[in-house]
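Researcher: Good morning. I'm working through a list of sequences from a screen, and I'd like to move beyond sequence-only analysis. For each chain I'm collecting a predicted structure so we can compare shapes side by side. This is the next one on the list. No need for commentary yet; just the structure.
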Amino acid sequence: MSRRAALSYLRLSCNLRWLAMLGEAVTLLVVMGPLHVPLSPLPLWSGVVALGCFNLYATWRIRPGAPAASDVEVFLHTLADIALLTWLIAWSGGIENPFASLFLLPIALSILALPTRWITATAIASAAGYAASTLFGNDLPPVPSMMGGTFGLHKAGMLVNFAVSAAVVLLFFSRVASAWRRSEQEVARLREQFVRNEGIVALATHAAAVAHELNTPLGTMTLLVDDLQRDAANADLREQFTTLRLLLDICRDRVRELAAPAVTGASDGISRHVDVDKVIEQWQLIRPTVQLHRSGSTTQGNEVDPAVGHLLLALLNNAADASEQTGIPRVDLYLQSDAQGLRGEIRDYGVGFEQARAPLPAELFRTSKPAGLGIGLALSHATVERLGGSLSMQATEGRGVRVAFNLPAVSS
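Model: Good morning. Structure tokens for this chain:
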């Protein structure tokens, strides 16, 4: 067990110990009061007080900011519980005490909290405590007939013992089961994230190789377009070549961004930030047939991480493709940047998705578009995760999907 988990177990043990003290005090008051069972009050109450003193120390031990606990310390706390239980059982009837089966609880709890060797040690200690209370404990004295004699009292005690044991096991094991389920869910999430990130890394490696291969043909195409623009016979043709040159410049910038070093502050002339408005303008140049309806304000902090630019392009392209499939080439974009960060929402007018379907987290190479690659949404989700933000999707009334993201502000 990890040291932090051990400290959590000690915290739970303290809570159970306070409940045990309350139950022991109530039992002693009832048994020696209304039932008139002639037990020795001094040894029994001294055991309850000793348990309380020990639990005060244990409560101080688990205070906020306390150092982590070890398996040895957990075992020593369990050993103290067994010793005090042995003392109380021995002075209240020994093996005749219906609560003698409580020696099984430390073993059961240790199975979920300690390594095998310490579980074995706990079992040996519990067995030794049971044997000691049996061999050296006081016999249960005769009791009045109002409880049906000694055996009637024993049966009533067994009933209470069962209820107490069931409550403790239910409380502890439900907490452990809940923690185990959360751990399993976290492991599954991390496994899915690892598989997705592994695919993204492989995709990035391939993209870098393709970027290297595209650099030369893009340069050649740029020179050819410059010559064609210069020799164009009329203004309309020159304007078309100008647009084509702008598109080539966008492609060349994308290729350079793929090859940009990850080290910040390098003097290579490549900007480490992009302008949100410029990214949107470039996208509109690439997708001129799509109507973009924009709202919100980005007057503060237009300069963002390049990954945010890629995120916007991927989400806008996905929305545009979905809208064009239904013959409604429209995309709604909301962007708001302030001191808290950047918030955005992109709505398409496509066919949408079923509410019961969970589109996030997206998987690589799975798409519903006829000519899609299945990487846009997965890359967007990975980008938002890396930047410490959140990404969500929901179907809109009528048709379409809303994709919302929230990115925290990055301190300079």
